[in-house]
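Here is one chain, start to finish.
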Amino acid sequence: QVQLVESGGGLVQTGGSLTLSCTASGRSFSSYVMGWFRQAPGKEREFVGGITWTGVNTNYADSVKGRFTISRDNAKNTVYLQMNSLKPEDTAVYYCAAALQTIVVPKYRGGYDYWGPGTQVTVSS
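Its structure:
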């Protein structure tokens, strides 16, 4: 099986920056399309962004475009989410996910096969 573990969450002030990481074990990391999702209390889990096998192509939700950057290091089996200019509305549990049977970035939960347990990001106002 594939296991994913997120790390790097915490408390930051509005306008601050935070970098999340997700480390995978199991199958070859380079064969996964990786995505980041987030879920705030009382809201649905929403797509944040994703990155293809090679890392050449990335996709972002409009709400984070220009502020968040996704990258991957296949040698370390790790994908990153660099978050800048954070806003209170970014507060959520952030999850990484892996999709094995696609070459494009799915923008919905059903497109992913494996999920990490999540890490909390809180942005104070």
